[in-house]
Amino acid sequence: MTRKSGDASRSTIRDVAARAGVSASTVSRVLGGVYPVSAATRGRVMRAVRELDYVADARAKAVAGVGTPTLAFVLEDITGPSFAHMAHGVEREATRLGHLCLVCSTEGDVRHELEFVEMMRAQRAAAVILVGGTADTPEYRERTHRMADSLASAGSRLVLCGRPPLDPGAPVTVIEYDNEGGAYTLVAHVLAQGHRRVLFLGGRADHTTALGRERGYLAAHRARGLTPDPSLLLHGDFTRDAGHRLMQQALKENLDFTAVVAATDMVAAGALTALHEAGLTVPGDVSLAGYDDIPFARDLHPALTTVHVPYEELGRLAVRTALEHTPGAPDEHLLLGTHVVVRDSVGAPPA
Amino acid sequence: MTRKSGDASRSTIRDVAARAGVSASTVSRVLGGVYPVSAATRGRVMRAVRELDYVADARAKAVAGVGTPTLAFVLEDITGPSFAHMAHGVEREATRLGHLCLVCSTEGDVRHELEFVEMMRAQRAAAVILVGGTADTPEYRERTHRMADSLASAGSRLVLCGRPPLDPGAPVTVIEYDNEGGAYTLVAHVLAQGHRRVLFLGGRADHTTALGRERGYLAAHRARGLTPDPSLLLHGDFTRDAGHRLMQQALKENLDFTAVVAATDMVAAGALTALHEAGLTVPGDVSLAGYDDIPFARDLHPALTTVHVPYEELGRLAVRTALEHTPGAPDEHLLLGTHVVVRDSVGAPPA
DNA sequence: AACACCATGGCAACCGGTTCCCTGGACGGA
DNA sequence: TCCGTCCAGGGAACCGGTTGCCATGGTGTT
Question: What's a Gene Ontology MF term here (chains A, B) (predicted)?
């Protein structure tokens, strides 16, 4: 069988060398571009490269020490709008810095997370970015500390992005955003409208993101000398469906409240629909607020008052900080600020 | 300086071999797991592996021909909900099949697209999945045909996912979904309610996704013996902001219409807000429909009537079909069906 | 014309793995 | 006791690149 251009066997540098009538080293040098090569030789080599449609194997280059660096991004589910924005930030910054970007979804399974990190270590990824809150157990800290050590010993670096920090000493870069502060300001705003019974809706009970926001909720109450009713904390998860279901349930149980603060905008969206379905108006009958400021928040009706989180910036910073880290330098811990975006979904409680 | 466990120099298979007092081949065989190795030797090797926290370099393995296969996913912007769902499908199926998943955003720049494809060829990716509609120009077809050949000759495969197919003969797998059919059914539904002047809103004028939906819009009119007013086609892009802006503009110009079909749910969301801002009710004064059935569609108020597209399935199929493809086999071209989801945003025109 | 020097390109070692092929030793059977 | 067999493990070639070092040949200088 004769070789034609559509042949499925990738050509090697030696094929190019043979066709150009030079040695492999020369081809490598021509392609490298720094070593002096005569114009004639360069021409012959380039022609052979073109004719064979040759591209050097990036993996082989990597083994030889001149590869494109890679960076890995591990999250629970790319489908969530805030995760998607982080991913976008990570990806943009990675390509800006000439890195390739591997992505893995864990689907919330810790085993997958461990497997992925191990694979990334094998890939010699420059950094592994772990994204999104989680349950902050001793087991989590220990497991993640081990990951961090393991990656560090392989010359890589673990980044926790919106995820609880570890004990000091773990070689880890932490980029967080202020869940507690944002929720504090938001709930203070709600309370300032005169609300006294505020439902906190959604979020897994042991999840640091939900927990941080809950702390802000409680602190805002305490700052006003109020002690919130514990029965007003309704847990579930972070989905739209959870918001919908929990809201329906709260209404069916005739829970006494005049405002709802949802753990995320997704939850708020579901809750809003449940309120509408029950014939209630927002903010006339019930006020509603979210968290995340996803693009859709302003298209809910009424437009959702929420907390803006600079997710894309978070992703970008994660990459930059991790790649700028030099071994031995102190570990970075950044906390990004958030701010409340006041729209139309929070008003005074009904008279 | 003494070596401690936190040392940043990754250990090689020879380090492990030395520590276990065996040869590198033996370590490789122990880790490979197939070749017979005595229990004692295996124990020593495994201990050394554990002590050094050794992981074989995946790139070196790849060069030697036993690597983890990789697959690449190239899209415009992971932030769009439909793209995110496709990405999710791709990622899930990829990991299910034991593949790593590289992701790149082109930000709509053709040069980035070319660069990425070239990089993926260098990475020896098993498949490169190009996602999302585009302008279907001769230049596009030629350029993409070259990509396809180039990838094929490197033993890889190009997949077009929701993107216009090429001339026959291009070694490419195409997975599309039915834009025209979905829009046809949707617009037929709108017309059946009695609407006669239906605005088509958003979508880049030369973009195949918008174009397909527009064709469905036109066909549905023709099927009823209607000729739509060309001034009712308003182009922009696929963002929420475009929907908002175009709708405002249409209202300001006093365009005569009783229903709006948006190019995407995102556009519809922006349009809905503009309608609300203008004091119009939906569907009382104006009916509104979207396309994509993103999760948020049901939380708009009124819940959005739209066309469901199986995006996640699309991503999964793209991966499976591409990886199952054997060189020389005929090229696949799949067309996935869509269906209308009737909610509350389309009603009869005002009397 | 002889010398030095520099531009050019080939050889071979190396990156970190895998695997073919071969050897040494233990073990079983005659 | 001796021989054949089998099994565990080592040596070396190879995957596809890069690069240090050296040989060669052409040019410039005196």
Answer: transcription cis-regulatory region binding
CATH of A179-309, one of 3.40.50.300, 2.120.10.80, 3.20.20.70, 3.40.50.2300: 3.40.50.2300
CATH topology of domain B70-177+311-336: Rossmann fold (3.40.50)
Q: Is B84 on the interface with A (CB under 8 A)?
A: yes
At B63, give phi and psi (nearest 5°).
-60, -40
Q: Identify the residue with better confidence: B2 or A247.
A: A247
pLDDT at B3 over 80: no
Domain spans of chain B, in order of start: 13-64, 70-177+311-336, 179-309
Q: Is the pLDDT of residue B298 over 60?
A: yes
Which of A165-169, A209-213, B317-321 is predicted with the least confidence, judged by mean pLDDT?
A165-169
- Contact between A256 and A197 (Cβ < 8 Å): yes
How many residues are recorded in chain B?
A: 351
- Strand, coil or helix: what is A347? coil
Smallest Cα–Cα separation from A144: which of A105, A110, A101? A110
Please report the number of interchain residue pairs, chain A to chain B, with beta-carbon separation below 8 angstroms. Answer: 180
DSSP state of B292: B
Q: Say if the Cβ atoms of B273 and A301 lie within 8 Å.
A: yes
Contact B151, B117 (CB under 8 A): yes
- Coil, helix or strand at residue A195: coil
Strands B306-308 and B339-341: antiparallel
Separation between the CA of A286 and the C1’ of D28 (whole angstroms): 93
> Residues B112-124: pLDDT tens digits?
999 999 999 999 9
Q: Please tell me whether any atom of strand C lies within 7 Å of the Cβ of B7.
A: no
- Indicate if B179-309 has the same CATH topology as B70-177+311-336: yes
What are the φ/ψ torsions at residue B141 (nearest 5 degrees)? -60, -40
Phi, psi of A264 (to 5 degrees): -145, 165
* pLDDT tens, residue by residue, B95-112: 999 999 999 999 989 999
CA B28 / C1′ D8 distance in Å: 14
SS3 B238: coil
Is the torsion defined by CA of A259, A261, A265, A270 positive or negative?
negative
Q: What are phi and psi of A350, to 5 degrees?
A: -60, 150
Q: Are A73 and B86 in contact (CB under 8 A)?
A: no
Q: Considering only alpha carbons, which residue of chain A is nearest residue B147?
A: A53
Predicted local confidence at residue B4, as pLDDT: 36
Phi-psi region of A43 (alpha: psi -120 to 50; beta: other; left: phi over 0): alpha
Residues in chain A with CB shorter than 8 Å from the CB of B57 are 63, 122, 124
For residue range A271-330, list pLDDT tens digits in order: 999 999 999 999 999 999 999 999 999 999 999 999 999 999 999 999 999 999 998 899
Element (H, E) at B100: strand B100-105
Cα-flanking dihedrals φ and ψ of residue A292, to 5°? Answer: 130, -30
Burial class (CB in 10 A: 0-12, 13-18, 19+), B276: middle
Q: How far is A207 from chain B (nearest CA, A)?
A: 23
Q: Are B159 and B173 in contact (CB under 8 A)?
A: yes
Sequence-ordered strand ranges (E) for A202-248: 233-234
**In chain A, which ranges are E strands?**
70-75, 100-105, 127-131, 158-161, 172-177, 198-201, 233-234, 259-262, 287-289, 306-308, 333-336, 339-341
Distance B42 CA to D3 C1' (A): 31
Assigned architecture for domain B13-64? Orthogonal Bundle (1.10)
